[in-house]
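dumping these here so i dont lose them again. two proteins, back to back, each one seq then structure tokens. dont judge the mess
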Amino acid sequence: QQPEAYLEQRKASWREVSLNLVKLSQAGASFVLSSIGDAPSNFLKNIRAVVKLGLPKTTALRALTQGPADMIGVGSELGSLKVGKRACLTVFSGDPFEDKSVVTHVVVGGRVVEVKN
């Protein structure tokens, strides 16, 4: 178990970085979000927390979808729902940025996979 002071310092640092995302959004800057460096079990929880701090949901969604696709040069094929694009979807039980919403299905390459929670 980590010392309390260390945990508080990490929380403060996380909040500062998260508020920087809100400020970048307010300034009109583009950015992407990635799970690199984050435990998979924390990724969605952390995105939801940044939205609660003020990051607009539409900005968060773009930073998770079209933004990364554009960044790596595949935005014409992936990143949004459009005729002719490959559909890779994550389906939620409700608003993906709400804590109670869970992943129900994933679609990759036209194959639908039900997710059991």
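---- next one ----
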Amino acid sequence: MWLIFLLLIIVPFIPYSKQSISPEDISSVTEVLSSDFLTQGPKIEDFENELSEYFDVKHAVCCSSGTSALHLSYASLGVGEKSIGIVPAITFAATANAFRYQGARVIFCDVEPETGNLCLNSLEEILQQISPKQKDEVNLISPVSFAGCVGPLDECKKLAAMHDFKIVEDASHSTGAWKKTQDDELITSGSCKYTDASCLSFHPVKHLCCGEGGAILTNSSHLAEKSRNLRSHGISRPYSEDHPTPWFYEQLELGWNYRMTDLQATLGISQLSRLDHFLNQRTKLASRYDQYFAEKRFSEHIIRPVFEKGHAWHLYIIRFKKEGFRDMAHKYLKSKGIGSQIHYLPVYRHPYYEGIYGRIRLPGAETFYSGCLSIPLYCDLMEKDQDRVVEELYNFLTSEM
């Protein structure tokens, strides 16, 4: 124990991810601290306008977290206790939890074992098994653009249209990501071209850091208005110059306190101005990892992620070929002062969901989960620290061979 403690003092700890904060970011927050508004002030609308412009959507609704963005979008679309929410098994629990907040039934879709993204064959099977009576309800598919790779949004849209499902993209991992279809059509994460809404997260490990925060992107005026109302207790303030009581407000429905603050919004505006830089840095670092892991000394034991252009590289996930190596590598790297993480334990394995739906095992999700390890990747990761990560991974492999 003391040896590990001394090692961390001598050799700086390398986290699996962290935020990149610039002097401009700090200055923008300081400026707001000196202003008249700290909570729901003018910076919220400014940030929403800039998000709308960047993602080329009609509306952006900022809120307190990525989870609240999911919850608000599901609720605004009409998801209720009789609804079904389909989510990929490999995701953070919030994608499913937001359905449970509305009392909806969650069905877990399998994923592609190579990428962790939603499996269309599994989705089609689920949709075909849902009874016609159930389809009278507001039902929803929430594909996750996992790890920075745009999910199969166009194909999900085709299936959703056939079965009268709505779609909300969980785009928490994929800010700035894009891909092209086989017909050379551009699909951008967050554009809402194939979805009713897309949800962003501004947690510190994400592409844009607001401390906490999230946003709903949509081209639906109704969904945007409904979400804005629900994020602030369901309260309406119908103020106008002609109103006899300018102070008047009324609660129209049961909402939540999911508001973003001006402090978060101004940080988000500053961060958004550097998003292209963040994406370029992440791509550069991912390419360096690619070169290392393509070497035979690694390729015999590790499967590296292989993606086309447009990947946003929220995570760099390697997969170990030999059973048990993932957890051993995680512990070994930790002992060397290097952070790593597992993304994710399949959501259906959590005790809460097992208590509701029983034991579930999906082959693609189990295969991906059994070997996946997210290694350090963030904008400010130094190349010498990246080299240290690779060196220690090699040391681990040679010690276990």
